[in-house]
Amino acid sequence: MGIENRVAIVTGSASGIGKQTARRLAEKGAKVVINDIQAEKVEATVAELKAGGFAATGQVANIADKAAVDAMVENTVNELGSLDILVNNAGMERAGALRKLTEADWDITVNVNLKGAFLCSQAAHNHMVPNKHGRIINIVSRAWLGGAGQAPYTSAKAGLVGLSRVMALELGGKGVTSNCIAPGLIHTPLWDELPEKNKNFLLSKQPTGQLGNIDDIAEAVLFLADDESSYFTGQVLYVCGGRSLYSG
């Protein structure tokens, strides 16, 4: 079957990497569920995909809220019949020097990046295991290896790598794989907003000397989501142009 007719939830998919990932899954024949906390963006993305002839529906939910996540997954299964692919893409960052970060900075970063992925994976696997098939794909970051000024984000993404490994061990014999994709520097609107000196500094540490793009991440998701990738689990796939070879 590959990806065709599979049902996929992509969290944080009303824009950016998540949106392009959902589009590429839909182009391969998947029925995609667009998730975000902003209803108007979800509606716009679903309408855009449907206008292109793709199967798409929307679920507005805060992934850090268990009741909201459980409802999103139940609604998906009730409406589309199954849940085969979960892409834990939603994320955010509060950055700064360790001494300047607040408890609120820590809480929101860890809740969205790590707790949200845990809740979504827990709810999803309850439907995947009985079907003996599932693909859980976690979007982490090269920053899980460590980054100055990124204490909450690095900790959350490192935790997500650990969670993914645990799920691979627990679910490997049940037909469910669990893997991570670790992007490096990707050209998104956030990059365009950076001062030139920041861009130059970041690119100076990039072996390829250039940015990746959102399609690079989406293509990696397609590989891991495919039925044929059943022996690939518990891994971190770096899509970073070699940036993971450096620390800091």
Specify the CATH architecture. 3-Layer(aba) Sandwich
What is the 3D form? globular
Arithmetic mean pLDDT? 93
In CATH, the homologous superfamily goes by the name NAD(P)-binding Rossmann-like Domain
Q: Please give the order of strands in the largest beta sheet.
A: 3-2-1-4-5-6-7
Work out the strand percent. Answer: 5-15%
Structure description:
The protein has 248 residues and is an alpha/beta fold. It has helices at 16-27, 39-51, 66-80, 103-131, 151-171, 189-192, 196-204, 214-225, and strands spanning 7-10, 31-36, 56-60, 85-88, 134-139, 176-183, 236-239. Helix 1 (16-27) packs across helix 8, helix 3 (66-80) runs parallel beside helix 4 and helix 4 runs parallel beside helix 5. The longest helix is centred in the middle third of the chain and has 29 residues, at 103-131.
Helix and strand topology:
Layout: E1 7-10, H1 16-27, E2 31-36, H2 39-51, E3 56-60, H3 66-80, E4 85-88, H4 103-131, E5 134-139, H5 151-171, E6 176-183, H6 189-192, H7 196-204, H8 214-225, E7 236-239
Parallel strand pairs: 1-2, 1-4, 2-3, 4-5, 5-6, 6-7
Helix pairs in contact: 1-8, 3-4, 4-5
